Amino acid sequence: MRIAPEDLSVIIPAYNEEANIITILRTLDKQSLEGFSVIVVDDGSLDNTAALVETYEPKQFILHLLKQENKGAARARETAIRYSKSKYIAVIDSDDSLADDSLEKAYKPLVSEPSHDISLFNLNYVDSIEKNATGKFICYTSHKNLKGEEVFSNCIKAWGVHAFGIYNRNMILTAYESYNTLNKEGVNYLNNDEVISRISFDLANTIFLSDGDYFFVNNTNSTTRRINQNYYRVLHNAFFLLNYIERKTNSQNKNVLINDAYALIISTIWGVSVRYFKWYKSFTSNERVEWRALISHSVKSVIRDQKVRNLAISQKSKLQLILLGIIF
Predict the structure, then answer these.
(1) Share of the chain above pLDDT 90, in %
(2) Which residues are 167's β-sheet partners?
(3) Domain for residue 51, yes or no?
(4) Does one domain contain both 245 and 210?
(5) Which among 187, 217, 247 is the end of a domain?
C-alpha cells in the first residue's frame, strides 16, 4: 500500500542509540506500507546516532533528521510532531521493532473509519530484537472499537491499554498543549509521555486495537529500570494527572477517576520509595535529601487529602500509605 508523506509520519526519538538506530530504519524499509515520512529526533546524543542517520538511504520512506539539546523523549516527540505536516503520527522507540505489515494494519482502520483518532499496535514483549517472545500485553477488553473516554478511565491506576500506535496529529498536539498547562516549566520528569498518552485517550473519539505487531524489547538499561538519580521526579506526573482529572467538567464518573488517580499516586510513591532504598548506596547525600523531601511531601499531601476528601482507596493503598507515613 502506497501513501504520501503528508498521510503518516513515524516519529523516532533517539538518545545515544547508535547500536539500534540503523536496525529500526531497516525495519521501516521492510514495511508493506510505502511513501510515509520518518522523523528521527537526535535528543542531544553523545555518540554517532545523528551521523548514522545522515548516511542512511531509505527505500520505502522519506527520512528527516532533527537535532536538539537533551530534553527527554516526550519533548523530542513534540519537536517532531510540530515539524511534521502529516495527518497521522506513529510513535516508535528506536530500540524496539515492528512486523513487516504492522504500519499498514494500524493505518488502514484510521482511513476507513473517520471516528478513529488512534489505532494501537498489538504489543508483544521480547528479550531481544530477534523477537524471542516473553509475553504479550493484555488489554482490559477484547473489543476492537473503543470509546476514548472509556479507555482513559481504564488507564488511570493501571494501564488498560498501552500507548504504542498511530495518533491523529491535531489531537495529540492538543494533548501536549493540555499537558504543558500542567507542567508550565517544561521540565523533563522522565515519564511525561505517560500523562500525554492518557490525555490523548481522553481526547480521542474512538480508539482501534489493531493486529499490527509491535515488539517491545525488555531493555534493562532503560530510564525506568537502570539506576537513575532523577527517577523520583516521576511523582510530579502522578499529581499532574490528578490535576488534569480535577479540571474535567463533563465527566460523569469524575469521583471514580479522582480515586483512581490517588491510587496511582500512592503506588507511584511506593515504587519510588522502593527504588530509594534499593539504590540508596549509589546516591550522594544531596540526592538522598532530594528524594526524601519529595517522597515526604507527596505522602503528607495524600494523607491530608484523604482526611479532607474521604477518598475511597483500597486496603492495600491504605496500608502502603500508613507505612510510608511512618518511614518518611
Answers:
(1) 87
(2) 89, 118
(3) yes
(4) no
(5) 217
pLDDT at 118 over 50: yes
Show which of 165, 184, 217 is a domain's final residue.
Answer: 217
pLDDT confidence of residue 225: 52
pLDDT for the residue 131: 64
Domain that holds residue 308: 231-327
pLDDT tens sequence across 45-73: 999 999 999 999 999 999 999 999 998 88
Domain assignment of residue 1, yes or no: no
For the record, the C-alpha cell of 59 comes out as 527505500
- Mode of pairing for the β-strands spanning 88-91 and 165-168: antiparallel
As a whole number of angstroms, the distance between CA 150 and CA 154 comes to: 6
Q: Are residues 253 and 204 located together in one domain of the fold?
A: no
CA distance 40 to 156: 30
pLDDT in tens, 273-294: 999 999 999 999 999 999 999 9
β-pairing, 206-217 vs 97-98, is antiparallel
Average pLDDT over residues 146-173: 97
pLDDT in tens, 27-47: 999 999 999 999 999 999 999
Grid coordinates representing 230? 532523577
For the chain, percent of residues with pLDDT exceeding 70: 96
pTM of the full predicted structure? Answer: 0.93
- Phi, psi torsion values for 283, nearest 5 degrees: -85, 150
Domain count, the chain: 2
Q: Quick check: is 226 in a domain?
A: no
